[in-house]
Design goal:
heterodimer; A: mainly alpha; 4 helices; B: mainly alpha; 5 helices; elongated
Chain lengths: 130, 134
Amino acid sequence: MSQKSAERPLSPHLQVYRPQMTSVLSILHRITGAALAVGSLMLLWWLIAAASGEDAYNTFAWFCGTKLGVFMIFGWSVCLFYHLANGIRHLFWDMGFLFKIENAQAAGWAVLAFTVLMTAGSWMCFFSKG
Amino acid sequence: MHMKWEDKGIKTPLARARGLGASHDGTGRWITLRVTAVANIFLVAWFLWFVKASAGMSHSTFSAFLAEPVNALAMILFIVSVFWHACLGSREIVEDYIHHEGFKLFKLVGQTFFFFAGGAAGIFCVLKIALAGG
């Protein structure tokens, strides 16, 4: 579609609409999804390193221990738990539930709580012995 | 001969001739996105367990661990489901924001290639470790 010769003004949306549970969680779902997709590169690195031999694997393991590595993995885990929880919320919508605005918002709070709890829980579990 | 409007669904004749909406496709992808989403719920749970179980392993221990049939199979299914889901999800993002038809096509094809190639590479590595001893 070619550009129109006169750029007509659009009605404002981001400048005027108050952020809400529905809209904010929706765009976060997209952002976390994109972040997870980018992070899949690190998953690939892990597998390729493991298949390439001991040196490559140890390099990967070293990177995972660095501050940057931990930060990246942590960020990926937050995105994972959020996207998982909100994804389930989406599946409920697909089945026809949670359309009443109060229910959608309550489920939204549950998604945020799940994200926080699962991130904290999984990292504590990861660093615990055994 | 004049076609009845009701027979043709919601599209105008021109829209129908041009071929669907932004994605030029639809229902199958919608369903597949949901099916892979449900599969991911289980596969991600396994993946988290696997990460915890394999943490700190040496290379040889890890290779033997991944080579165990259940782990290798689960990892392959995980790669297939996650990469397919990511491919479809990133399609939606491109379809929503990019309207230059040429650039959109470039991105869609390019992303599909990336996820297919990445998925193939991941599966190949798992098979190499499981069947050929890494």
